[in-house]
TrEMBL record:
Keywords of this entry: Coiled coil, Lipoprotein, Membrane, Signal
Residues in coiled coil: 43-70
Location of the OmpA-like domain: 87-217
InterPro entries given in the database record: Bact_OuterMem_StrucFunc (IPR050330), OmpA-like (IPR006665), OmpA-like_sf (IPR036737)
UniProt keyword Transmembrane, yes or no: no
Domain of life: Bacteria
Organism: Mariprofundus micogutta
SUPFAM superfamilies membership: OmpA-like (SSF103088)
TM annotation in the entry: none
GO CC field: membrane
Signal peptide: 1-22
Name of the protein described by the UniProt record: Putative lipoprotein YiaD
PROSITE patterns, alphabetized: OMPA_2, PROKAR_LIPOPROTEIN
Length: 217
């Protein structure tokens, strides 16, 4: 029977003939080195991918900023165009002028027909305007000039009252044709705002008038 100390001696001799313990047991540091190299390569690849993603994100953020800037510019341009269009539309526009006979406040049949057609046109589509009817007279005093007196064909004592009656006559005709009464306003201005020379009959005829104005709210 082999004694234990001889077995131990044999093992020591065997170990002494090997260069390293790693050689005896097949242990080597090469796999560890390979793992480190692989990890380093993977880290480098990951770093490259992250850098690429950051670059793409930067480009994307730039594109979004450009699109936002363009959208803001477009909206500002549209708002500017809208304001310019509103400013281009007069707030107060003369629509029609109706003439009156000397000393009269009543409309002629032709004037009534014309006003009714205009009223029907006005109510044929939605509107945001109101109607201002402004009455005027020539400079002839009530009852005529001193050298050509006549009996007036109306009950009014002043040109201001006569001009208001003329405006009321036009407004009533428009309302009877369908224009809502709450958007029609009538006012008289008397012998003012002449559009022609009162020294001639044709000039005075032009001054005896009522004007219908479209007024934007």
């Amino acid at each position: 029977m082999v004694k234990p100390r001889y077995l131990l001696l044999v093992m020591l001799l065997t170990l002494s003939s090997c260069s390293t313990i790693e050689a005896i047991f097949g242990i080597s540091d090469e796999p560890a080195v390979q793992d480190d190299s692989r990890l380093a390569a993977e880290n480098q690849q990951l770093g490259t991918e992250i850098a690429d993603l950051r670059q793409e994100l930067s480009v994307l953020e730039g594109d979004i900023a450009d699109q936002k800037s363009q959208e803001v510019a477009r909206l500002e341009a549209e708002e500017k165009a809208r304001l310019q269009a509103e400013q281009a539309i007069p707030k107060d526009r003369l629509w029609v002028t109706v003439s009156f006979r000397s000393g009269y406040m009543e409309l002629t049949k032709a004037s009534r027909r014309a006003l009714k057609r205009l009223a029907e046109k006005f109510v044929s589509k939605p509107r945001t305007q109101t109607l201002d009817v402004r009455g005027y007279t020539d400079d002839e005093p009530i009852g005529g000039y001193a050298h050509s007196r006549h009996t007036p064909r109306h009950p009014y004592k002043t040109n201001l009252a006569l001009s208001k009656a003329r405006a009321d006559s036009v407004a009533a005709t428009m309302i009877s044709a369908g224009v809502p009464h709450n958007i029609v306003h009538a006012e008289g201005f008397g012998a003012t705002h002449f559009v022609a020379d009162n020294k001639t009959a044709s000039g005075r005829e032009r001054n005896r008038r009522a004007e219908v104005h479209l007024v934007n709210k």
